[in-house]
């Protein structure tokens, strides 16, 4: 089974930006030239990049379209993109412009009919975001809580050709480790590919996710603060 170690490229004000627990007031990393940052990770062995438009997630519409397409043009890797993708035409345009997977969160919960239509039109190209805080799925740039649990979202889409992105917001950006039990619970609840994010801060965390059957892990803060050496981490990839 394939297993990818995926660097996160979170975009805010055209800079690579890391937040603690998704809080826009708690910025921990700011880097210029996101296209160069993305190209660096690919040069060091990344087979996939996780590009999130933080401003898009906040405002409900993609704000870094040109930057994302330049990353797509410069980088010979899979690109998965999320952040404010709530418009059908915008989602379709990204797929047609060569984005490997589009990540749908708020729209998947609030408009499942539209989401399922996109899945049927673009099998294998839709990733369902399961952003969990306190056991419930968060929406609207993580500012609101739904009443749905991660497992309920999985059950709704499990019969469709999708992948899932499970993010544990409770530990996101803290570089303090992740919750192994919750990762196992999510992976074991579906036969679909599950990518794991939130709190991945050691080679041991990556190895645990791989052995648990995850399709990949997304690393952000631990990578940018130097807690994880990416050249070591990519040795755990199975491609």
Describe this structure in words.
It is a single chain. The protein starts with a strand and ends in a 6-residue tail after the last helix. It has helices at residues 34-43, 54-59, 65-74, 88-96, 106-110, 112-121, 150-157, 180-188, 203-212, 221-224, 230-233, and strands spanning 4-12, 15-19, 27-31, 48-53, 78-82, 101-104, 126-133, 136-139, 144-145, 163-168, 194-197, 216-219. It has one domain (4-236): Aldolase class I (TIM Barrel, Alpha-Beta Barrel), CATH 3.20.20. The protein is an alpha/beta fold. It contains eleven helices and twelve strands. Strands 1-4-5-6-7-10-11-12 form an eight-stranded parallel beta barrel, surrounded by seven helices. The mean pLDDT is 92.
Number of domains: 1
User: Which CATH top level class fits?
Assistant: Alpha Beta
Helix tally? 11
What is the CA-based Rg, rounded? 16 Å
Summarize the structure.
The chain is α/β, with parallel strands linked by helices and 239 residues long.
């Amino acid at each position: 089974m394939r297993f990818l170690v995926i660097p996160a490229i979170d975009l805010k004000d055209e800079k690579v930006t890391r937040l603690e627990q998704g809080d826009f007031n708690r910025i921990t990393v700011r880097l210029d030239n996101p296209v160069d940052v993305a190209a660096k990770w690919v040069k060091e062995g990344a087979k996939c990049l996780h590009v999130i438009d933080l401003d898009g997630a906040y405002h409900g519409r993609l704000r870094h379209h040109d930057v994302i397409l330049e990353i797509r043009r410069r980088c010979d890797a899979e690109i998965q993109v999320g952040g404010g993708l709530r418009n059908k035409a915008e989602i379709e345009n990204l797929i047609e412009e060569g984005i490997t997977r589009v990540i749908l969160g708020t729209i998947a919960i609030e408009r499942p009919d539209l989401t399922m239509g996109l899945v049927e039109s673009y099998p294998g190209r839709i990733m369902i975001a399961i952003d969990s805080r306190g056991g419930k799925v968060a929406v609207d740039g993580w500012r609101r809580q739904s009443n749905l649990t991660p497992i309920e979202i999985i059950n709704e889409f499990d019969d469709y050709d999708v992948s899932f992105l499970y993010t544990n917001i409770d530990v996101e950006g803290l570089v303090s480790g992740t919750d192994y039990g919750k990762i196992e619970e999510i992976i074991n609840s579906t036969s679909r590919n599950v990518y794991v994010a939130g709190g991945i801060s050691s080679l041991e965390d990556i190895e645990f996710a791989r052995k648990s059957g995850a399709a990949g892990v997304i690393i952000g803060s631990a990578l940018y603060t130097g807690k994880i050496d990416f050249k070591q981490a990519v040795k755990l990839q199975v491609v």
